[in-house]
Amino acid sequence: MEEVMYEVKQRMALITLCRSEKRNAFSFSMVDKLCRTLRDIQNEPKAKLAIIKAEGNVFSAGADLKELQEMQEETFEENIANANRWTDLFQMLNSFPKMVIAQVEGPAMGGGCGLVSACDFAFATSRAVFSCPEVKIGFIPSIVMFFLVQRVGEAWAKEIMLAAEPLSARRAFEIGLINAVVDGDIFEHTKDFAQRLIKGNSSQSMETTKHMISRIQNMPVEDALRYAAEMNANARISEECREGVSSFMEDGEPPDWTHK
User: Fold this and answer.
1) Distance between CA 16 and CA 107 in Å, rounded?
2) CA atoms within 13 A on the CB side of 244
3) pTM (global) more than 0.85
4) Which end of the chain is more exposed for a tag (fewer CB within 10 A), N or C?
């Protein structure tokens, strides 16, 4: 059976982690397949955004410890090559032009927690818990670290990675790791949110804004403002901005962006 599957419905690419018999732990092949899936979706004109969810009761238990144990017998160079599979995945999520939403219905541990932190939005049920327990087994949460610190700040990232205790969904919401705790049908909630983005927002504008957020954080103030001014000027003369402003001026409403 495929470890990762996806289908496109209503401009949404629904990505499903399908290794529930292993608590959706990421095998090396599963990481590779998720990367290939994201590349396919990036080039899929029918998909305006992506939702990542999972089969079973666990979102992801993180890295497959059996495979990790096997890699302990390999050389440093072989381990570097293998670790870079994970960095490729996180870099792809970070630079992915379309919005990515995590739908979390159970524990998200280690790399699973990191995956959530690298998504643009995340919604969870009250059954979800979040943890990075790597230090408990003598390992380190190195590859997820950058995104966790970005998402929740240094103090909370230290609690997640050094205290290494699980956080409830409610606590994860309070510190900004997820956007909401959903009490009802989480897929309906996620789908409704996704459809608001699809209909209400320009793809080009969302892509540019996401790219800018990633770049601008590490710039000196003067460089950041110069970059912002250049991007602002480019956006003003873009086709979608012309269409959006004209629609609002004529009808008092922005366009329906569903098919753009």
Assistant:
1) 15
2) 16
3) yes
4) N
